[in-house]
Write a structure and sequence with these properties.
single chain; alpha+beta; five-stranded mixed β-sheet; about 15% strand; globular; HetReg/Transcr_Mod; Heterokaryon incompatibility domain-containing protein; HET
Length: about 650
């Protein structure tokens, strides 16, 4: 039930007394009866062309759940429905002409029919119970848009069992067959992306199930999925020429389908399962069902999951899925996990308040996830304190995944913690010192000073790419999304991202970072993009990509963070420190040394924790942003 535009992101069918924020309570269908009366839902059923409604228990009723994207919704009257509902014209046509034959005489739940969309409190209240709806449902009907993948797209993929790779996944049809095809050519996913880019250039292709947040959550909670597709509205919205945003968004659809299939197939699996089980037995079945409008079933019943794990984070670090309100990135995702209970008055809370409350609940159950930002007098044992500034609101799912991708710190009372002194220099000082090294600095022209700045920016960014290799390889979708979404008047931001895109795209891994940087300083296009641009913009963007902060929040980072250079094992890294500590002359920086990294216990990516504090503050530290590194050290720079 993805929400668009001005639509409030949350939905619910009833009110309930909510517990105190911060208290961890059980959630999910298997536990609700222990703490509260059984959940009651308003369900619908078609009978003689009319829509009947009745309040029923989902635990004892066979019913279907409908997952869909709202689109351009408006209030309208639909034949067979007594009251006005808020839907798009295409969805109204679907409800009138297709839905009755799909559900037959079965009870079903669909947000626009079962929740009073004029009642904001009801819409927010339901979010806590959405996991129960889709877990209890016999089958989920996922409704695709009429303007999505075409028949030619499915044909371009070829054998759908080779969607993920040309070899390994072939075995999923017959696990006893050792004859694996290692033929040349692209796998199905890349064939799809190539086909969309080449054959549908200039066209608008909407697949809300792959671009919006709510359908992802509803589908992964469902053991059995049936995909259907809306019919186009005659005389409806006419085909239009794709905008830059449309064009850049389309190639992401193939990757989003792959991530959806992987997430659904492995949902609830733990790390004790064999690797093959963890990469998903049934991911190909979901891809086929999506493309061919069929049905896919998991090999096991949905398990209630206590906590998200690092695989949940890693699969969506570059996700561009969106939703209507920033708070929905918490309220749509977290209620599926047993640890989480939505706080009181969730609708009135800011994203920062909801996020910190979620992190405190994660901390109470000693999860292997930690926020990217932390300020606390108990920082070394991972307790979450208040922040001096609001967090950057996520614009897409990848932004949220990155905010939950910090280092996990544990320091039991009475234990000893080793802190290693870290030497950091603000990039402003680095740039100033570099300029003073120019011959005849006092007489240098603005042109030559700009040229020197450009060269230093290029070398700094390229060095950062080579020394922070964990997150840069997945930056392509994020950069494309930002280029598409940047408003026309944000010229400096656009030019800076385009410059980074050129540098990433032309990296030659057969050369070292110095050779790459020297070659790029000869690109006239780079110098033109960087001309008259404050160096802080491209340097801050590079630091955000290196450290794992969504670049959609560049303005926030420029206002609240300082780019710094730290040297570890003779390798320099770009880091980000909050201005509250970076602008103080008394701040000292430390690395919290850790042992061997264990995924899921210490976070989703191995990181050294970079701490900033004043020696006189008696243990009060601020967590700075430092790039993850698989070996806790970088490779040689030059």
């Amino acid at each position: 039930m993805a929400l668009d535009g001005d639509r409030d992101a949350t939905i619910v069918r009833g009110k309930e007394t909510e517990p105190d924020a911060g208290k961890v309570q059980a959630a999910g269908p298997s536990r609700e009866s222990e703490a509260a009366p059984p959940l009651q839902l308003l369900l619908c059923r078609f009978q003689a062309g009319k829509l009947l409604k009745s309040v029923m228990s989902p635990a004892s009723t066979d019913f279907l759940a409908i997952s869909h994207v709202w689109g351009k919704a408006e209030w309208m009257k639909v034949d067979g429905i007594e009251h006005e509902i808020r839907v798009s014209r295409e969805k109204a046509k679907f409800i009138k002409e297709q839905l009755p034959s799909i559900v037959g005489d079965q009870w079903f739940w669909m947000d626009v029919l079962c929740i009073n969309q004029r009642d904001d409190e009801a819409r927010v209240a339901i979010t806590q119970h959405i996991p129960s709806v889709f877990r209890f449902a016999q089958r989920t009907i996922a409704v695709r848009d009429s303007s999505g993948f075409k028949e030619c797209c499915t044909k371009a993929i070829g054998d759908p069992y080779l969607f993920f790779s040309k070899s390994r996944d072939w075995r999923s049809r017959n696990e006893d067959d050792s004859d694996v095809n290692f033929g040349e050519g692209l796998d199905g996913r890349r064939r799809l992306i190539e086909h969309i880019t080449e054959e549908h250039a200039g066209h608008v292709m909407n697949e809300g199930i792959l671009t919006r947040l709510w359908p992802l959550q509803e589908i992964i909670l469902s053991d059995k999925i049936q995909f259907v597709r809306c019919k186009p509205v005659e005389g409806g919205e006419q085909p239009r020429i794709a905008t830059e945003y449309d064009a850049r968004k389309m190639p992401v659809l193939g990757q989003s389908l792959a991530a959806l299939a992987m997430t659904w197939s492995t949902h609830g699996e733990d790390h004790n399962d064999p690797m093959r089980h963890r990469i998903g037995f049934t991911k190909n079945e979901l891809v086929i069902a999506f493309l061919e409008l069929g049905t896919a079933s998991r090999r096991y019943e949905n398990r209630e999951v206590l906590l998200p794990n690092e695989r949940d984070i890693m699969l969506h670090l570059n996700s561009t899925r969106e939703t209507g309100r920033a708070r929905d990135f918490i309220l749509a995702i977290m209620p599926q996990y047993g640890f989480y209970k939505a706080p009181k008055k969730a609708k009135q809370l800011t994203f920062t308040e909801l996020f910190l409350d979620c992190c405190r609940q994660l901390r109470e159950v000693d999860s292997g996830l930690s926020p990217l930002f932390l300020e606390s007098d108990h920082l070394l044992d991972g307790r979450v304190g208040p922040l001096k500034v609001d967090l950057p609101e996520p614009k897409c799912l990848g932004d949220l995944a990155k905010l939950l991708n910090g280092p996990v710190m544990r320091c039991p009372p009475g234990s000893k913690v080793d802190l290693a002194k870290a030497d950091g220099v603000p990039m402003a000082k680095v740039m100033e010192n570099a300029a003073r090294m120019l011959p005849d600095f006092a007489e240098v022209t603005d042109h030559h000073l700009q040229l020197a700045h450009n060269v230093l920016v290029i070398h700094t960014v390229v060095r950062s790419i080579f020394n922070s290799t964990v997150l840069w390889p997945i930056s392509h979708h994020e950069i494309n999304r930002e280029l598409a979404a940047i408003p026309p008047d944000a010229d400096d931001k656009r030019r800076a991202i385009e410059a980074l895109h050129i540098m990433i795209s032309t990296i030659d891994l057969d050369e070292n970072s110095y050779e790459n940087a020297v070659r790029m300083t000869e690109y006239p296009a780079l110098h033109e993009l960087l001309r008259n641009m404050p160096w802080r913009i491209p340097i801050t963007l590079a630091a955000m990509l290196s450290c794992g902060l969504g670049i959609s929040r560049l303005d926030w980072a420029l206002e609240n963070m300082t780019a710094m250079q730290f040297v570890v094992n003779e390798v320099s890294y770009l880091a980000l420190a909050p201005n509250s500590v970076a602008l103080s002359g008394d701040t000292a920086y430390y690395f919290k040394e850790g042992g061997e990294f264990f995924g899921g216990r210490d976070g989703s990516l191995p990181r050294q924790a970079l701490l900033a504090g004043n020696p006189e503050t008696d243990g009060y530290f601020t967590l700075c942003l430092f790039p993850p590194d698989t070996k806790f050290k970088g490779s040689r720079e030059y």
